[in-house]
């Protein structure tokens, strides 16, 4: 893996170079092993938190971990195009619009002891902007090359804080073209429901049950690219103990192993259906 400035990452994409890189400021990673009509994203996978922010933050390291989406990058790591955040969403949230990305409160609790200095806030916003410059270049390249594209936008959510039964998988589709892409969405839901998980975990997959797909990553791509479907895909945190901060690697591996085959098949069907 190379450490590259955003300008070089974009240059590589534009020239269809295959590469693995981390951004110069270590805020995100991208790998392209092959140019294919699909990409995977894990915008909330990151846990890094800039040291200059530590003393001012009212939330604990566990509080941050609890609201992040650990292991979501590892669930899609085998696919040819993967872009993932390295920084905690408590520093800036890649799934929020630029002017909302740096939180003042987080999940009902004040985040900072004293308001962030302007320079610290701007540093976070610059990282957010850099990520989206690369996303724009990437999807532009894939749409130009293939005509259509599908993006698997991987997230996780804390299922134990819900006071009702919730699905293992949730697809948020309220901001995509359901009339055009409805069959592909339902096909993806069926695929997710078919995944076999260890430890007696019962599989269910629903659409717009817990989340509706209102994230900025989805909206940014959908609003800027007319032939790209973003599938906002949430797995309940059945792959960890969300209260004791313990990851279950056998569950993560089961998801990754099955998506290794199932996800490209779905992407191939999408391309076959919409490339004409």
Summed up:
The protein has 276 residues and is an alpha/beta fold. The protein has helices at residues 6-14, 61-67, 72-75, 118-146, 178-194, 216-224, 249-274, and strands spanning 2-4, 19-23, 28-32, 38-42, 81-85, 105-106, 109-110, 149-157, 169-172, 205-207, 228-236, 240-241, 246-247.
Shape: globular
Count every helix, treating DSSP H or I runs of 4 or more residues as helices: 7
Q: Based on the structure given, which CATH architecture is correct?
A: 3-Layer(aba) Sandwich
Radius of gyration: 18 Å
| Low-confidence region ranges | none
| Mean pLDDT score | 97
Largest sheet data: 9 strands, mixed
Helix amount: 25-40%
Organism: Winogradskyella haliclonae
Protein name: N-formylglutamate amidohydrolase
